[in-house]
Here is the input.
Amino acid sequence: MLACNMLARAFVAVGVIVLVARLTGMLFRRFNQPLVIGEIVGGIILGPTVLGAIWAGGPTTLFPAQIRPSLSVIGQVGLMLYMFLVGLRLNLRTVRSNKRMVGRISLGAILCPLALSVPLAVYLYPHHKLVGGHTVSRLAFFLFVGVSLSITAFPVLTRILEDRRMHNTELGVIATACAAVQDVLGWFMLAVVLVIVSAHGGATHLVRIVVEAAFCAVGIVIVSRLVARLDETAPERSGSGAESLHSDARGRASLFFPAVFALVLLCGGATQAIGLHSVFGAFVFGIALRRAVPNATAEQLTNRLAPVTLGVLLPIYFIGPGLSTNLRAIGSSGIPEILLIVVAACAGKLLGGYGASRASGLSTRQSAIMGTLMNTRGLIELVVLQVALAAGVLDNRLFSELVFMAVLTTMMTSPLLSLLMRRGVGAAPDLARSDLLALPPRLALDGGRRILVRKLPEDLAQLARGGVDVEL
Here is the structure.
């Protein structure tokens, strides 16, 4: 009877989470904010910050301790699927075609926040070194503060670019590639922090983790090539790219979609087993599969997985940060810490992104836009914070302060972009018209300079309307 009652309460909890996340997401979208920000705020509303203030026992009544492990598992599945989709959408060709500029901007947008994180960590460590009765390693704490300031949310940034029709522009492509590189470096730094936190064998343990991670990566690449052979929707095998992922051209049941879903979980489980987080395996599998299947198949996978992942499963993951975040408990004593964290986070990304962009040859206005885009954090920051909280690197108060920073810096992005892209703002409208031109998906950038036109005369007309000189 107790099990049935807990199952019923779990169903109610899932329904409440999904509904509140959707409503708050839609509300924030009306204010030109990313949907994910509203969903994050929805999780905070359901936690002790808001619901706990109105109804003292609300969070524990709606989300009792007995059902939280089940919610956590569902949320982790959603997170792995989401990171798989991020990897699936990551086009490494954009990194290669602009590798020098992408390398400079990525390093600048990481090294500057890392430099600023050192004095910040020196100030924060004495106040937050005790977590759960044990002392956090100074090195792990310093590295983690650096990671939390250095991360750029690749998925949220791409969503902002798509909303502004900048995702296929030259500047948008470069920003996307920089965010992707920073995400990879950020995950690597997070892996190092986790190894330091859990290591009992020193350098030997670290070497073992690196070797096992390398074997996992090779294995993931191999299985991605194998599962790609099951893709009976590919044009060369079925004669049409428009067939369902569940059946081939003759209506037979296909193994491809179930195999992909299973391998997301298996790859995530493999990296979790060696001491890294499950998101690493899912992310790498997404990148590997993207290189093994046609674009049409990747698009179909995204179309099938994204609605359930983004609309149902991932909001359940957000309840974790919400239930662990009590902004009311920070108190007046935490205000100086929040101010220092926000200033260091913004200064590191804005100055680092701007300076590296100027050094790479971008104009003043372009560099300001690039720095603003690099300051986007959002979901990836929350994933990192959740991992650190579970690993015992953070206490609840610092966790809440960093969640506040992540939400605030992401909410700043859209207003700052609107200000920078408005005519008359800045020294001169030196942002090239082609950088603001919204190109249809069938157009591609070659080396960041040439536009490949695949359909005439529609594409030529589109370019002419955007003010681009076309030479035939």
The first helix runs from residue 2 to 29. The mean pLDDT is 78. The chain has 21 helices and four strands. Residues 108 and 359 are 10 Å apart (CA to CA).
